[in-house]
Fold this sequence. Notes:
Strand order of the largest sheet: 1-3-2
Bound molecules: iron/sulfur cluster
Number of domains: 2
Shape: elongated
Amino acid sequence: MGRKFNGCFKHTDCFANKNGCCMALSDTRFHGKDCPFFKTHEQAKEGRRNARTRLVITGQEDLIEKYGGHSADEYQ
Length: 76
Ligand code: SF4
């Protein structure tokens, strides 16, 4: 049985939006409010860069590879 994706037609420019479906959230109902998780592709990319930098600075580089990231050596 495949995963069911929820529609998101308000933010088609969101990093998690693929063809009008949210690939990140299982519930896209915000009761009349805007999605608090909206990020552009560039904002999401910057967030990943910052998280990676934090892991390197705090000596937790092993977590980068453990969770599917790339080795910190590639970003130096
Ligand atoms: S994270 Fe929010 S804005 Fe982005 S696609 Fe999902 S529901 Fe839409």
